[in-house]
Design a protein that fits this description.
alpha+beta; two-stranded antiparallel ribbon; 6 helices; about 15% strand; binds zinc ion; membrane
Amino acid sequence: MANGGFSQKFEQWLYGRNGSDDVARLCANVALVLVVVDLFTGTRWLSGVALCLIVYALYRAFSKDVAARARENEAFMSKLGPARPWVSSPVATIKDHRDYKYMKCPDCGQRCRVPRGKGKVRVTCRACHKKFEAKA
Ligand SMILES: [Zn+2]
């Protein structure tokens, strides 16, 4: 009974808060890497930086100003360019790059995705509809 009451109160407390976003996840992941590096190098200040990143990630996750956090998140993510999927979902991106190869359209420079291991394939650019052959 008491346990159910606590989880209900916690859910109410979480309601209307930002939750985990790309920037918070990136901060947490970088913090984890810094802690591991710190374990092997013994530079204590890296753990301090990691702690600051975790505090910032928690601040973002529990912030009630969801609109402001969403704007910051989008502003940061839009600056990343082609690195965006690697930050947003690294595991999905690794899987994607295992199954697909990316190449640029020779005409317009549009990024085209072709399945890996299919040998020579005929690619049609989605932007300019130019057809070209590529090794995948
Ligand atoms: Zn094209």
